[in-house]
Each structure stands twice: as C-alpha cells, then as structure tokens.
Amino acid sequence: MNDLTIVDATAQCCANCGVAGGVSLKSCKACMQARYCNAECQKNHWSKHKKECKQRAAELRDEALFKDPPAKEDCPICFLPMPRKLINCVSLPPATITSVPIYDFSKANEGFADNVTEDYYPCCGKSICHGCLYSNIKSGNEDKCPFCNSEREGKTDEDVVEDLMKRAEANDPTTICLLAHYYYKGKGGLQQDHAKAIELLTKSAELGLSTAHNVLGVIYERGWDLMKAKFHYEAAAMAGHEVARYNLGLLEAKSGNMDRAFKHWTIGASAGDYKAMHQLRTFFEQGALSRESIDAILAAYNNSCAEMRSEARDACIRARTETIET
Length: 326
Hints:
Number of helices: 15
Largest sheet: 2 strands, antiparallel
Strand content: under 5%
CATH class of the largest domain: Mainly Alpha
Structural class: mainly alpha
Mean pLDDT: 88
Order of helices and strands: HEEHHHEEHHHHHHHHHHH
CATH superfamily of the largest domain: Tetratricopeptide repeat domain
Helix content: 55-70%
CATH architecture of the largest domain: Alpha Horseshoe
Shape: globular
Distance between the termini: 81 Å
C-alpha cells in the first residue's frame, strides 16, 4: 500500500473515534483537514486538534490574503479599470527609483489627491468614474445621469436619501454603504447616528462590498479595536481594495511584522497604490529592499497606472488643478 492510499484511507475516518464514514464525514470548517462523524466527536477531539487546527487555519488565511487580488472593476461607460484615487491615473512620467511622481504630485495637490474617483447614481445603481463625469458635464448633460440618462436636475440631498432608501431595500451593498455615510455625517435630513452607520456598513460588508470593509477598518482602528480593524482591512484587501491593503501594511509595520507589511505594500503598489509605492521606495533607500525587488514592483506599478489613464480622466485632473490654483 503506497502513502497516497494510506492518506486517503485515513481521510475517510473520523479523527476522534476512527469510525469510517466516507463522504458523510464533515470537515473542520477552520482547517478543512480533520473530519468528524458528528459534532460531539469534533468537540471531544478539540483538545488534541486545537494546535494543529489553528496553525493550518492561519496558513489557509495567509494563502488567501497574499494571493493576487481580483481585477479592478471597470467604469461602465469607458470600460477602464476604476482607480481608488483619481490621482493614480494622472498622465505623468513613469515612476522611477528616485522619484514617484504620482505621490509627489498628490502631496503638492492635497486639496484633491484623496478625493473619491467615482460618483454613484441610485437611479441605475452605477458608479461612474470622474473622467466620464467630466466629459458628461462638458457635453452639457450635467443634469442627467451619464449612464441611464435620467433627470437629476433639482435633486436635493433629501431626494437622494429617498432614492437610496428604495435601493437599500433591495439589499444593494453600494447603496447601503452610501446611506451609512449619510447617517455618519448627518446629511440629507437624517439625524447623525454613528451606531446606525456602523450597522449599515456591517450589512454592506456582509454583502461583499470591499469599501464598506475598509471604512469599518478605519473606524475600528480609530477606536483602538485593532483586532476588528485588521479583520475588515484583510477582508477588503482580499477583495482587491488596495487602500485597505496599504492600511493593513501600516498595522503590520506598527506591530513589527515588516515582512508582512512589505508583502501588503508590494501587492498594493502593483495595483497602482501610490502610497504603498512610496513606502517601498523609502525602505529601498534605507537598504531594506533589493534593487531587483524594487525594479519589479515599479514595473508592475507603472503598468497598473497606465491601464487606468485616459484623456478624460487627465482632463478632469487638470481642471481640478486649475481650480485649486486660481
């Protein structure tokens, strides 16, 4: 009997009582390795299984956490990847070892460097990039939804909240997240209610919205609940939220886990996050990263930024820059 046969035979038996159960056995949900014929056997075996289970569960978590994130969502109009920060797709020379132009440019234009890159329209449930919104305004259609062409003229914050309420009833996660923002700030005629906002953000996160996870991470980090903050940052990062990935890197760095911080910033920088790229550039200059590593990360960073550029997005950034300067 070869080793494979032995492993297969063991896998068909309950880890506690050893009774063969075949496909009827239930796997431990944490480690996915040990199998049991019932809940009582699993409970009785826990003291023996606990150490191995936690170790394997952590390994599985890291495998999911550090694998390549999913592709960015596209704007439904221009079909280009949606940047987290519009500044990421400004048409500047590619980043180099001694200069990360997008980061430097954003620091010089802090008035809009961290602005959102898209607007959400509850009429059709679409998020449109600011490049397309800028083109829509220039074409004279400012008062219409750029996607479904419905009239938006005269819409007050209260009207928007009413629209959001309707879509929230259908469990649209983006709508619920935006509604949470209104409660958190006390906008649109809603009374400021942080508890309600967190409740809605939690629901949105449970429905799979990475932005909601990241916002919850920020809220819990500010409240010094670092365990919850890390959980939500990780959930957002695994869903492809590079800003959450950057925040997670900071948490790990503060805890002294620099290897994990570097991994997070590498993934974030490769997705076009200028702050993560700046962190890695700083550590390279301190001798903590090799030239080969930083070259590979810079190449991925520049490629990601190039994929997010368009004439419309660049025109939007120029218009904002001119407005700030005047």
